[in-house]
Design goal:
Length: 324
């Protein structure tokens, strides 16, 4: 066991993700069950700098496990990106007796946690992002809900696309990573899936595919396009001109971040939040909570941020075989 501590902090940072509330709830209830005091930091790293803190106990996190978003709020913090802001954040932790800080967020949030760690603040990261783009973990909180939200919307677009015999381009989130697009493309039976990691920008090939599927008797054509590829509206105009098939665009946008989290996200978030507290109780320092090969594990924060992540090649191969 490590040195006994009495106070921890928890914040959510970056883009919100369904399940963040479940993770905060698990942190608070696990910590208070062990006699720890928990300080909630509102509005991410901005709140850390502005001393926007709230005392949390088991009662204060009741009835939030089913809520989307984050009841601690979140924000981007340009001030915290500076050395002065990072030092001020570390100083605030010391001022308020925060002996360990749990950061729930994505890669950018982890970078901030890494800076605090280098300044002597024990930071534990919990992966909360719909994009599934954190290299050290096979799962991130919010991904399952985002995919299910997008899948439901794409099913509805397919209905009207079929009725009007159209091609539909549905743009989903994923600026640098195509995990949502790939999962939705497979789940929705899309005819084409465009990923920022692999798209070759060959619109002639897309046009030929639309024409070929139409010749085979298919009366609709669904293209799931990742945000990182983008240009969905102008792409629709060009494809319509090239094929003669009416083509429409639907950008799903932030609807994918909202909504009540799925059972998987609630359970994963609860387990990861509790695991983060367990690490602190064991005296671990500067770790990232992860899910790898079917189990909960943790990595040193520097090691975790040095990892690289690639989409599974088998999933790509299967998606190409199914897109017909």
């Amino acid at each position: 066991m490590g040195r006994k501590i009495s106070t921890i902090g928890v914040l959510t940072s970056g883009g919100d993700a369904p399940g963040m509330n479940a993770a905060v709830r698990a942190v608070v209830r696990t910590a208070t069950a062990h006699g720890l005091r928990v300080i909630g930091v509102r509005k991410g790293y901005n709140g850390l700098l502005d001393e926007d803190y709230i005392e949390l106990d088991a009662k204060s996190v009741a009835e939030i496990i089913n809520r989307g978003g984050t009841f601690l709020y979140t924000a981007r913090s340009p001030r915290f990106m500076t050395e002065q802001g990072q030092q001020q954040g570390a100083d605030m932790c010391r001022k308020h007796g925060i002996e360990a800080l749990i950061v729930i967020g994505g890669d950018g949030s982890y970078r901030g946690a890494q800076k605090l760690a280098s300044l002597g603040i024990n930071t534990i990261g919990v992966p909360g992002t719909i994009d599934l783009d954190i290299a050290c973990t096979d799962y991130t909180i919010g991904f399952d809900t985002a995919v299910n939200t997008a899948m439901s919307a794409i099913d509805k677009v397919r209905d009207t696309s079929t009725s009007h015999e159209r091609c539909s381009i549905i743009e989903v989130m994923g600026r640098h990573a195509g995990y949502i697009a790939l999962s939705c493309g497979i789940a929705n039976g899309a005819e084409d899936i465009l990923l920022p990691e692999f798209y070759d920008y060959d619109e002639e090939k897309l046009a030929r595919h639309i024409i070929d599927t139409r010749k085979k008797g298919k009366r609709h054509h669904i293209i799931v396009n990742a945000e990182g590829v983008g240009h969905s509206t102008s792409m629709a105009r060009r494809l319509q001109a090239a094929t003669g098939v009416t083509t429409r665009t639907t950008v799903l946008g932030y609807v994918q971040r909202g909504g009540s989290p799925t059972a998987r996200d609630r359970v994963m978030a609860s387990m990861m939040g509790s695991y983060a507290v367990d690490l602190i109780l064991k005296g671990a320092r500067n770790r990232i909570v992860s899910w790898r090969n079917g189990t909960y594990v943790d990595y040193d924060i520097d090691e975790a941020l040095a990892m690289q992540k690639e989409i599974d090649s088998y999933e790509i191969r299967v998606s190409k075989a199914l897109c017909r």
